[in-house]
Design brief:
This protein is an alpha+beta fold and 154 residues long. It is 28% helix and 21% strand.
Length: 154
C-alpha cells in the first residue's frame, strides 16, 4: 500500500507541476501594458559613438556591396580612377553602415580627422571588404600615408 502511495505521490507531483507550467505558459492574467512613445526616438545620431561621425557616401560598386553586406562591415575605401590618376587608398578598416531607411545608401563611421581627409577626395568611392583587424592596445585607427589629394581642374 505504501509503495502504491509513493508511486501515486510522484504522479500527483508531476501532474501538479505540469498544471502550474500550463498556467504560466497560457498566462490567464494578461498585464495591462501601456506603450508610450519615448520623447527621444532611436535614430542614427543617438547611436554614433563619441568622437565619431557618420558620413553618407556614394559608392561606385554599391550594387556589389549591397549583395554582400547585411547591415555593416569593415571596408577599405578607395578613390575612383579618373583619367591619368590611379585610384588610391583613402581609408583603411572603416565601418561601412547600410542606411536603415534606404537600403541602397551607405555611410562610413569615421573620426572627424578622417572625415576631413575623406572629403578632400571626389566621390563616388570604391569599397573593398576587408577582414577586421582590431587595433593593438594604445593604437589609434590608421589612415593611409598618402599625399594630400590633388584637385582636378574641370
Amino acid at each position: 500500500m505504501k509503495q502504491l502511495w509513493m508511486k501515486n505521490k510522484k504522479e500527483i507531483g508531476l501532474l501538479g507541476l505540469s498544471l502550474i507550467m500550463m498556467i504560466l505558459i497560457l498566462d490567464p492574467f494578461p498585464k495591462n501594458e501601456v506603450t508610450t512613445s519615448s520623447p527621444l526616438s532611436l535614430s542614427a545620431d543617438t547611436l554614433i559613438p563619441a568622437g565619431y561621425q557618420l558620413v553618407a557616401i556614394e559608392l561606385e560598386n554599391a550594387l556589389s556591396i549591397d549583395s554582400l553586406v547585411a547591415d555593416n562591415t569593415i571596408v577599405d575605401l578607395y578613390s575612383r580612377t579618373t583619367g591619368k590618376n590611379k585610384s588610391q587608398l583613402i581609408l583603411r578598416n572603416s565601418r561601412l553602415v547600410r542606411a536603415p531607411r534606404n537600403e541602397n545608401q551607405f555611410a562610413v563611421l569615421i573620426t572627424k580627422e578622417q572625415t576631413e581627409y575623406l572629403l578632400g577626395f571626389q566621390g563616388p568611392y570604391f569599397a573593398v571588404i576587408s577582414p577586421y583587424k582590431p587595433p593593438q592596445v594604445g593604437e589609434r585607427p590608421s589612415k593611409p600615408k598618402t599625399k594630400s589629394p590633388k584637385k582636378s581642374v574641370q
